[in-house]
Amino acid sequence: MAEIINGREVSGIIRDEVKEKVRLLKDRGITVTLAVVLVGNDPASRIYVRNKEKACEYCGIISRKIELGESTTQQELLSVIEGLNADKDVTGILVQLPVPAHIDADAVIRAIDPSKDVDGFHPQNVGALSIGLPGLKSCTPAGIIELLKRYEIPIAGRECVIVGRSNIVGKPMAMLMLRENATVTVAHSKTADLKEVCRRADILITATGRAKMFDRSYIKEGAAVIDCGMDRDADGKLCGDVDYEDVLPAVSAITPVPGGVGPMTVAMLMHNCVEAQMLR
Fold first, then answer.
1. Whole-angstrom Cα distance, residue 136 to residue 142?
2. Can you list the residues of the chain whose pLDDT is less than 70?
3. What is the pLDDT of residue 225?
4. Does the predicted TM-score (pTM) go above 0.85?
5. DSSP secondary structure string, 91-159?
6. CB count in 10 Å sphere of residue 249
7. At what angle do helices 170-179 and 123-131 cross, to 10 degrees?
8. 155 and 98, same domain (yes or no)
9. What whole-number distance in Å separates Cα of residue 189 and Cα of residue 187?
10. Which residues make beta-bridge pairs with 129?
11. What are the Cα distances from residue 120, in Å, to 200, 222, 263?
12. Less Cβ around it within 10 Å: N or C end of the chain?
């Protein structure tokens, strides 16, 4: 019978671990502060920022929200980031994405001090990850590694297929799995015979944003399946990239949507805030 990987439960454990670390830092007179910059009025972004504020409150991390209007120029945003970079009281900086279309998101990411880049998106942190140096790691991939380890799913020597090559999930996920000694294939929209590639995987990680794309025909018997998707099916119901009910009888372990990978992203953001303080 498949083991259901409970991301809500694991994320709660990680938040408790972070809370204790923050308490120990406070005992030494050290505070952890996360500055979140929100540009514009995207409703989903506001929900994400609220969730991060709640997580900070629970963990004892000081949350500082900077709200900027939709018409904020790129230079104005970069000036705000420059100020936060220079502020010694700020441990971590996060600019909530997406930003308005007239702002270059890559320029914004590059402007953040790498030592305060708690999203783990700065090229310096990505480069450190690729060659095994210390640095802040992208939250979702780092959360997936935690799920695999805490559920004692073997990684070393296993064949891992990651479907998706984004800078946020696919590429850093591949580097983290390599660091754990998996044999890694990164597949994508141009991959020939995608189904056959996926069927090789002991661990299949999907990050395509295509609702229920992966049915049982993509799955190797006994594989562990990690679904990073957050989609809506034909009935408008929240679902992942994986057809959960169809693949469930074939897998050894699987993350549900919701309640799998999603909660881990914010938990690992909290972890990164403490890590940023430790790396100072």
1. 10
2. none
3. 98
4. yes
5. -EEEEPSPPPTTS-HHHHHHHS-GGGBTT--SHHHHHHHHHT---PPPHHHHHHHHHHHHTT---TT-E
6. 11
7. 30
8. no
9. 7
10. none
11. 30, 32, 17
12. N
Which one, of 280, 234, 277, 279, lies nearest residue 34 by Cα?
277
Which of 171, 259, 262, 161 has its CA nearest to residue 219? 161
CA distances from 244 to 10, 161, 188, 241 (A): 20, 18, 20, 9
- CA–CA separation, 168 vs 142, rounded Å? 11
Contact 91, 116 (CB under 8 A): yes
Burial 93-123 (b: 16+ CB within 10 A, else e): bbbbeebbeebeeeebbbbbbbbbbbbbbbe
User: For position 1, what pLDDT does the model report?
Assistant: 81
**According to the model, what pLDDT value does residue 280 have?**
83
Read off the CATH number of the domain in which 117 is found. 3.40.50.10860
**Token pair 């809506």 in the structure block, residue:** 232
Residue 244 maps to a domain: yes
What domain range is 149 assigned to? 139-262
What's the pLDDT at 32?
98
The tally of CA atoms less than 13 A away on the side-chain side of residue 95 is 28
Question: Is-cis flag, bond preceding 123, omega within 30?
Answer: no
Q: Are residues 173 and 218 in the same domain?
A: yes
Residue 118 belongs to some domain of the structure: yes
